[in-house]
Design a protein that fits this description.
With about 650 residues, this protein is of the alpha/beta class. About 50% of the residues lie in helices and about 20% in strands. It has helices at about 40-50, 85, 90-110, 115-130, 140-150, 155, 165-180, 195-210, 220-225, 245-280, 285-300, 365-370, 405-415, 420-430, 445-455, 475-490, 500-505, 525-560, 560-600, 610-645, and strands spanning about 1-15, 15-25, 30-35, 55-60, 70, 185-190, 210-215, 230-235, 235-240, 325-335, 340-350, 355-360, 380-385, 390-395, 465-470, 490-495, 510-515, 515-520. The two termini are about 50 Å apart. The mean pLDDT is about 85.
Length: about 650
């Protein structure tokens, strides 16, 4: 069943048309990934979906009562004071109902024998509403999401929201989206600010929950593992594809080739017809020529595939070849305040190595990079650059981009001898053309600042590149262009990234944080992933065996204590029966609510005879289920009374 439908949508900002002819349909349970260049209109699609933006033309149809979870960019979290409250902000109405139930329970206790039937009815009705809305599972769900995103659920209940960093607030916002009771989740770059381990958890979580998902992401591996449909935004319109990112790339190439062939074929036919008309319009075959001209005028012209302009072009200038030993690290110890980040790390970076530095957020990856380049003093040990080694550093915080200067001035300061044409051409390779080069760096988005940082980095000849999260805020095409540039680079690279596809393509060696130690793995990132997966499988097997042995010991203990527990067994049996009957009551109530919603749907009665027949079947089932509920309630009451009498 479709829960969201776009039909021929056009979005205009003044005289500029951002999107036109956008048509696609999202069915319940589908997982959609949205890709496209920065500025193509991906976030605008989200604003159209959640209703914060109205299209100039076209129609958007949403399922009645559709509940959506959208990350508030301001991240105010409804005025929540603690991390836990912020993560549970999607349950605002349910939390308010829980508080109301607590007050009612206290009042009922105070009233005692003076409790009225109306009081009990109100309390029972609110309890039923709380149960049906998932109130009893609220805390467990919020705790599970917080745990998965790297927060301690117990600490989150008292930790002030104002104490969080920007990255932590982003993760709390993601937690609020994932935990919320909704039908459709909209995620905008959810893997930003997440480490590799947390991204793996997020993929597993999204694979298990049943809500419909629409995600904007530049993480190709994440899209491949998470979505089953792709929406490509290009040329001021969108095209839908089935499958993940890899399937999209293949289908898109095939579609472009087919369209180009169709356009070429039609042009040949049109040219042939126009030639015939030209030669015969005034001769004996004038009537035929006029007829062909009329048919040609009515022929719909095929358009070539929408163009996107040139992708970013990245070419790193390698300095003169230095020695084979690019970086020598000896018993390095790195600290931050009183905390030890790296202990006793020794290794050698050799010419041509592409090293992936991986570890959880907060492990100290950025601090280690700063130490290797001399910007952070080691607590002990040493890191020495080899002879003739010229390093270049891409900082995650993008502080290498000058403040309050135009993009043009940033390049001109580094290349004072370049003409305006040289500077324009260089910036054009990074997506800045025309008047864009005169924009001030203080007004740039994260992705634009990253492209300026890369444009500056490529101007500096270096035989060692140290790249700290260079893919953050870049669109997929720019990430692939950076990937191409690094593949052609002849120097050494130390690389931090959470983009698995990026690391799989490039890394020939892995430094992996293990607490305060760093494990230096001599194989590719793909091989390291395989090793980690095999180790995880062995750990699961070991835990299962330990659990089995523990259970066997407990079984022996239960047998030895059977005589002492015989008297308790009858009560436990009665408890289980009461619980089973309670579940039957809840299941019947849930089915009744579902049937009532179905019968209240106006669309049911628009189907003529078929709709009437279906309504009759639903009504009969509703009557039968209500009788079953009455019987289950009576049996549950009897079982509960018997249990209380023991």
């Amino acid at each position: 069943m479709a829960i969201l439908s776009f039909s021929d949508i056009t979005v205009e900002f003044g005289a500029t048309t951002l999107l036109s002819g956008v048509t696609f349909t999202v069915a319940a349970g589908e997982r959609w990934g949205i890709v496209g260049r920065n500025g193509a209109g991906k976030t605008t699609l989200f604003r159209l979906i959640d209703g914060s933006l109205t299209p100039a033309r076209g129609a958007i149809v949403r399922q009645p009562g559709l509940r959506m979870a959208v990350l508030d960019q301001a991240r105010v979290f409804g005025g929540a004071a603690t991390v836990w409250d912020a993560a549970a902000s999607g349950y605002g109405d349910l939390v308010a109902l829980e508080h109301r139930l607590s007050r009612q329970a206290a009042r009922l206790a105070e009233l005692g024998d003076r409790v009225t039937a109306a009081d009990l009815e109100r309390f029972g009705r609110d309890q039923e509403q709380f149960a049906h809305a998932g109130g009893y599972g609220l805390e467990a769900r919020v705790d599970a999401v917080l745990q998965g995103l790297g927060f301690d659920p117990a600490d989150a209940r008292t930790r002030p929201l104002v104490s969080l960093s920007g990255g932590e607030r982003s993760r709390v916002g993601l937690a609020a989206q994932l935990a919320a009771p909704v039908d459709l989740v909209l995620l905008d770059e959810p893997t930003n600010h997440l480490d590799l381990e947390t991204i793996e958890w997020l993929k597993r979580y999204l694979g298990e929950f049943g809500e419909t998902l629409i995600v904007i992401s530049h993480d190709r591996a994440f899209l491949d593992d998470t979505v089953d449909h792709m929406l490509h935004v290009a040329g001021r319109t969108t095209t839908a594809y089935r499958g993940g990112y890899t399937a999209f790339v293949t289908q898109r190439a095939e579609r472009h080739l087919a369209l180009e062939r169709q356009v070429a074929q039609q042009r040949k036919v049109v040219a042939k017809e126009e030639d015939y008309i030209r030669r015969n319009i005034a001769g004996r075959n004038s009537a035929q020529a006029k007829g062909r001209r009329a048919r040609l005028a009515r022929l719909p012209r095929l358009s070539p595939p929408p163009g996107e302009g040139e992708a970013m072009s990245v070419r790193f200038a390698a300095a003169e070849r230095g020695g084979d030993q690019v970086l020598v690290i000896e018993r390095l110890r790195v600290t931050a305040g009183q905390r030890c980040l790296v202990r006793d790390f020794s290794t050698v970076v050799r010419r041509g190595d592409v090293i992936a530095l991986v570890g959880p957020n907060g492990a100290g990856k950025s601090t280690l990079l700063a130490t290797l380049l001399g910007a952070h003093e080691p607590a002990s040990g040493a890191a020495r650059l080899g002879a003739g080694v010229e390093p270049a550093w891409f900082r995650q915080d993008l502080t290498q981009v000058p403040e309050d200067k135009t993009i043009y001035e940033c390049i001109a300061e580094v290349r004072g001898g370049w003409t305006r044409g040289h500077i324009q051409n260089h910036l054009g390779g990074f997506g800045f053309s025309g008047d864009d080069v005169q924009r001030n760096t203080s007004a740039l988005s994260g992705g634009e600042r990253a492209r300026v940082a890369l444009a500056l980095l490529t101007l500096r000849p270096a035989n060692l590149l140290v790249l700290d999260e260079p893919t953050n805020d870049l669109d997929v095409e720019s990430v692939e262009a950076l990937e191409d540039g690094l593949e052609d680079y002849e120097g050494s690279v130390v690389l931090v990234s959470h983009d698995r596809a990026f690391l799989r393509e490039l890394a020939t060696r892995v430094w992996a944080f293990d607490g305060e130690r760093i494990h230096d793995y001599g194989g590719t990132f793909v091989e390291w992933e395989q090793q980690e997966a095999e180790q995880a499988a062995r750990d699961r097997t070991r835990r299962a065996q330990e659990t089995g042995a523990h259970q066997a010991t407990r079984s022996e203990a239960r047998k030895a204590a059977a005589a002492r527990r015989e008297a308790q067994e009858t009560r436990r049996s009665a408890q289980r029966e009461a619980e089973t009957l309670e579940q039957a009551v809840l299941a019947a109530e849930a089915r009744i609510a579902e049937l009532e919603r179905a019968l209240a749907d106006p669309a049911l009665y628009e189907g003529g005879a078929d709709g009437a027949l279906k309504a009759g079947r639903l009504s009969a089932e509703l009557t039968k289920t209500r009788r079953a509920l009455d019987e289950a309630l009576a049996r549950w009451t009897d079982a509960s009374d018997a249990l209380g009498a023991e």
